Amino acid sequence: MAMTFDKTRVVILGSTGSIGVQALEVVFDNPEQFEVIGISAHGSKPELLLEQAQKIGLPAERVAVASDRTADFVEAQLGGHCIRGQDSARDLVEELGDQLESTDVILNALVGSQGLEATLSSLGTQARLALANKESLVAGGQLVLDAADEGQLVPVDSEHSAMAQCLRSGRRDEVATLVLTASGGPFRGWTREQLEPVSPLQAASHPTWSMGQMNTLNSAT
């Protein structure tokens, strides 16, 4: 007799960004393992957000969006009412908070320090926080660490996930120094004179990673 397992319930904050899209690809490829119960987005890609909600089967009440225009668009197609406003990602987490258990996951893939409030709200639930929003730790620092239970905060973006895996491979006292490397972006090694005429298109062309336009531009500057 085959063993059955409960699905991992997932909330994805920043579902239309690069990491959010990749996370949903994993969910869609493994429907027997994962169930998405809420998504949030800024609202710059209304058609993609609607497509995601429809494919997952979410009602509008489980879609959080910062843009009123995008919220109107999604509501017109799904019926019901989205969670709206600049704090909508945090509000979605708080709306679902009492339902979340230690086996559930909140993926914070928001961009920038706007992700801090959602991070703190997520750590106030029983769910694990898969943190791709590095700015939360930069801006929140000890505040975030103090809010997290042991094992609740899981790094998922490339650099800090690699650091965590290194630290878990042995004992902490075996590690004296961690050295982070980087690709250097598209302009590594360029002189000041070479950089003067570069275009936004060149800056958005990362030689290694597909990170979404905003992250790629930030990486290049």
UniProtKB/TrEMBL annotation:
<dbReference type="Pfam" id="PF02670">
    <property type="entry name" value="DXP_reductoisom"/>
</dbReference>
<keyword id="KW-0414">Isoprene biosynthesis</keyword>
<dbReference type="InterPro" id="IPR036291">
    <property type="entry name" value="NAD(P)-bd_dom_sf"/>
</dbReference>
<dbReference type="InterPro" id="IPR013644">
    <property type="entry name" value="DXP_reductoisomerase_C"/>
</dbReference>
<keyword id="KW-0413">Isomerase</keyword>
<comment type="similarity">
    <text>Belongs to the DXR family.</text>
</comment>
<comment type="pathway">
    <text>Isoprenoid biosynthesis; isopentenyl diphosphate biosynthesis via DXP pathway; isopentenyl diphosphate from 1-deoxy-D-xylulose 5-phosphate: step 1/6.</text>
</comment>
<keyword id="KW-0479">Metal-binding</keyword>
<dbReference type="GO" id="GO:0030604">
    <property type="term" value="F:1-deoxy-D-xylulose-5-phosphate reductoisomerase activity"/>
</dbReference>
<dbReference type="Pfam" id="PF08436">
    <property type="entry name" value="DXP_redisom_C"/>
</dbReference>
<dbReference type="GO" id="GO:0016853">
    <property type="term" value="F:isomerase activity"/>
</dbReference>
<dbReference type="InterPro" id="IPR013512">
    <property type="entry name" value="DXP_reductoisomerase_N"/>
</dbReference>
<keyword id="KW-0560">Oxidoreductase</keyword>
<keyword id="KW-0464">Manganese</keyword>
<feature type="region of interest" description="Disordered">
    <location>
        <begin position="202"/>
        <end position="221"/>
    </location>
</feature>
<dbReference type="GO" id="GO:0051484">
    <property type="term" value="P:isopentenyl diphosphate biosynthetic process, methylerythritol 4-phosphate pathway involved in terpenoid biosynthetic process"/>
</dbReference>
<feature type="domain" description="1-deoxy-D-xylulose 5-phosphate reductoisomerase N-terminal">
    <location>
        <begin position="10"/>
        <end position="141"/>
    </location>
</feature>
<dbReference type="GO" id="GO:0030145">
    <property type="term" value="F:manganese ion binding"/>
</dbReference>
<feature type="domain" description="1-deoxy-D-xylulose 5-phosphate reductoisomerase C-terminal">
    <location>
        <begin position="153"/>
        <end position="221"/>
    </location>
</feature>
<keyword id="KW-0521">NADP</keyword>
<dbReference type="GO" id="GO:0070402">
    <property type="term" value="F:NADPH binding"/>
</dbReference>
<protein>
    <recommendedName>
        <fullName>1-deoxy-D-xylulose-5-phosphate reductoisomerase</fullName>
        <ecNumber>1.1.1.267</ecNumber>
    </recommendedName>
</protein>
<feature type="compositionally biased region" description="Polar residues">
    <location>
        <begin position="205"/>
        <end position="221"/>
    </location>
</feature>
<dbReference type="InterPro" id="IPR003821">
    <property type="entry name" value="DXP_reductoisomerase"/>
</dbReference>
